[in-house]
UniProtKB/TrEMBL annotation:
It holds the Pfam family Pyr_redox_2. This is FAD-dependent oxidoreductase. It comes from Dactylosporangium fulvum. Gene3D superfamilies: 3.30.390.30, FAD/NAD(P)-binding domain. Its cofactor is FAD. The lineage of its organism: Bacteria, Bacillati, Actinomycetota, Actinomycetes, Micromonosporales. Residues 5-303 form the FAD/NAD(P)-binding domain.
Amino acid sequence: MNKPSCVIIGASAAGVATAVELRKRGYAGAVTLVDADPNIPYERPPLSKTLLGTGSRGLVPIQPAHTYRDLDIELRLGERATAVDPAALTVHLSGGEVLPAGRVVLATGLSPRRLQVAGADAENVLSLRDASDASRIAEGLASGGPLVLIGAGFIGLELAAVAREGGIDVTVVEAQAQPLNNAVGPDVACLLTQLHRRHGVKLLTSATVAEFAGSAGRVEEVRLTDGRRLPASTVVVGVGVEPRNELTVSARIEVDSYGIPVNEFGQTSRAWVYATGDVASQPHPELARRGRIEHWDAAQRHGTAVGATIAGAPARYREAPYAWSDQYGATLQIVGRPRPDDDLVLREGASPSEFLAFWIRDGYVGAVAGMEASRDVGVVKRLMAARVPVDRAELAGRDLDLRGLLKQHRNGVRATAGSKLAG
Ligand SMILES: Cc1cc2nc3c(=O)[nH]c(=O)nc-3n(C[C@H](O)[C@H](O)[C@H](O)COP(=O)(O)OP(=O)(O)OC[C@H]3O[C@@H](n4cnc5c(N)ncnc54)[C@H](O)[C@@H]3O)c2cc1C
C-alpha cells in the first residue's frame, strides 16, 4: 500500500497551520507545502504596517526554517501548482514534476481585483498582497509621493498611515460615502475617518476613478469621474479581491460566488480535496449562510482544524472571527461581525484612536471593536464566548466594569443563555 501523502497548495497562514497540525496530530505520511512565492513562508499583516524596503528584508517568517526540517515538512517554494488530477490523485507543478497526493489542501488565498480603467496596467499602479508587491510599493515611495490609494479598506488605510508617518503626501479615493461602513458600521467608521484626516490624509469619498493618465508607461495623474485630477507618483489599488480558485477546474470541484465551498470540516465537493483560509467559502455560524472570512486568525484556525481533520481528529473552526489593524501606532481589534440591525453602544475616549464599541444582539454582545482597548476587548470576547447576557444601560454607563460582569457570571450571580439576567 502507498504511504499516505498530503500536498498543501499555498504556504501562508492557512497552509502552514495545516501542515504543522498534521504533524502535531501524528500524521505519518509525506507532507508537502507548495507555494509560487520563493520566500520562506512569511506573515502578510506586517506588509501593510511597515515599509519593507526592497527584496525579502524585513519579512516575518510564519515558522522558523528549522520547524519544517524538524517536522519533516517538505517545502516546494517558487513552484506553482498547475493542476490537480482527480483520477490519478496527483498534483502537477510548474517545473513538470507530478506529486502523489492522497489528500490535497487548497490554501491559495485571494488576489487583488484589478480596476478596469485606462492606464490601470501602468508600471506604478500597484496592489498589495505579497512581499514583491510590498517591495515595489516601498521602491515607489522611496522617491517621495504623492501616493494615491484607490479604495479605503483596512490594508489601504494602514498603508496611508505608514506613508503619512514617512511624511508622504497621501490621497485616498473611496467610492462609498464613508470607508469601512460594512466592516464596522457608520459610527466607528466615522472615528477612523477622523483619525486619518487628523494625520493629514486627503480622503475623497463618493469618488471614483475615470482613468490613470501619464506617459512612458507611468501614471502621473489620477483623473476622477467628477473631473478632479490628482498628481501621483505611486498608485496603490485596493478595490476588493478574487478567490484564487483556478485549480478547481482540473480538480473538478464546485465553486460558488465566494470561493471554494467547503463543509464544516473543510472538505470540498470532492472528499479528498480540502480548501482552507481566505479562499474557502465556509459555513461559519457568524455568517448568514456561508462566505469568506478574510482574517489572519481565521485562516490560521481554519487551517489548524483542517490539519486535525486530515490526521483523523475531525475539528471545526467556529470561534467568533477576530481581526486587528494597526494605524498610527494604535491597534484596532474586532471580534465578531457587526450587523446593521444590532444596537450599538459606543464609548469614546479622548481621541478618535481610543474607543470601545459593543454591538448588542438579542440581549448579548454580538460583536465588539476597540482601539487601544485590548484588555477590554479580551474580556468582552470571553463574555461573548460564555454567552453572558448584557444590559444596554449597564454597558453605556459611566461605571462599566467588564471584569466584574465576567466575575458575576463565573460566580453564578449572572445568568447564562436561556435564563433571565440576575438582579
Ligand atoms: C497586506 C496584508 C495585510 C493584512 N493585515 C491583516 C491584519 O492586520 N489583520 C488580519 O486579521 N488580517 C490581515 N490580513 C489578512 C491575512 O493576512 C489573510 O487573511 C491571510 O494571509 C490568509 O491566509 P491564506 O493562507 O488563506 O492565504 P494567503 O495569505 O493569501 O496565501 C495564499 C498563498 O497561496 C499561494 N498560491 C496561490 N495559488 C498558488 C498555486 N497555484 N501554486 C502555488 N502557490 C499558490 C500564494 O503564493 C500565497 O502564498 C492582511 C493581508 C494582507 C495581504
